[in-house]
Sequence to fold (382 residues):
Amino acid sequence: MTFYFIRFFISYIFEAKTRQRLFLMAMVGLFLSSVSLVVVQATLRGLQDNRIDRAKSIMGDYTLSKFESIKPVINYLDKLSQVKYNKEFELEGLVRFDGRLAPVIIHGISSRDYLPDFLGGRIYRDEIYASDYISLKLRSTIMDDLTILSPIYTDPFFGDIPRQKTLVHNKNIETLEPDIDEYHVWTDIRNVHYLTTQRLFNTVRIYGPLSNTDIDNLKSFGSLISWEEENANLLYALSLENSIMIFLFMATVFLVVISIAGGLAIFYNRLKTDFASFWILGLSVNEIKKMGNKAIGSLSVLTLLLGNAFGLLLVKLLKVYSPNIMPQMFVDRSLPVKLSPSVFLYSFLIPAVITFVVSYISSQNYFSKKKEFVNLIRAASR
Fold:
């Protein structure tokens, strides 16, 4: 009986001359909402993960500082075969050109260590590597001589004048991270040692994941900070962005479900005679209500499954054939895609729960007024 009832219920929705168009439009809206949720979440997560991966490829997954000696650290990292690292002397300083100054963070590194891709394969001693942002601040061009200095380190022989070193800006670098390009420069470690008069390193950047055991061991050498800890505000902003987008689309889903509830109210009213027929055949009002809920639930699940499948297909096509739709000034000109189980949690499970709850309330409200269909049968027999 349940199968025949559900088949009658669903066939009436699609085949009857008096089918409820509002209900069908609501189901189409539910389908489009699930498609949109899959696509938006996958592309948004792809953009955010690209942003994080780019930053980690520049500044490292972990930063170790405040260590007493660098030799034990290097000896330990050399034992980790899948981990890349570089050691540097990082200090705050200034870059000067033609009387103009720009505050920067100077990274002194060596070509003997791992170099991020944006630096190329080698760091030359007489060169400085800076971005267009810094050139605009200084109004300098390629092949100009830039002077690096740090007010912390002075030369007492010349009356405590800050030590300085003139280098050639031979190549513009571009990390694709504006906040890094605007304030960071790189040069050979020997130039920084010349400024500080110290043949030391104060920072080790580690590129790649570490196990919990490795993290604990490295913390015994000094202060180990992960990229996530150092950029907690950025991660919070990205998480908030994702939450807001999901909330907005869930609000859209809720409006669609309200339309489903309205369509059900009209649809149930048109089927009241058919419900009375099932009641005469021996079904109780509660059984009719339960089977009606099952029919609506089955239709909703089918709609959401089709929406998720179509969204997944669309995302796969975007991943393979995504064109460059953004202007050249943007870092990600195409739409990066990342799929995860949580994407389908928000695009299938939560809309399904909302639909079931609202549909149940709607049917509960209707059938509570139809405890028996006697009056309807009497009216039909007159």
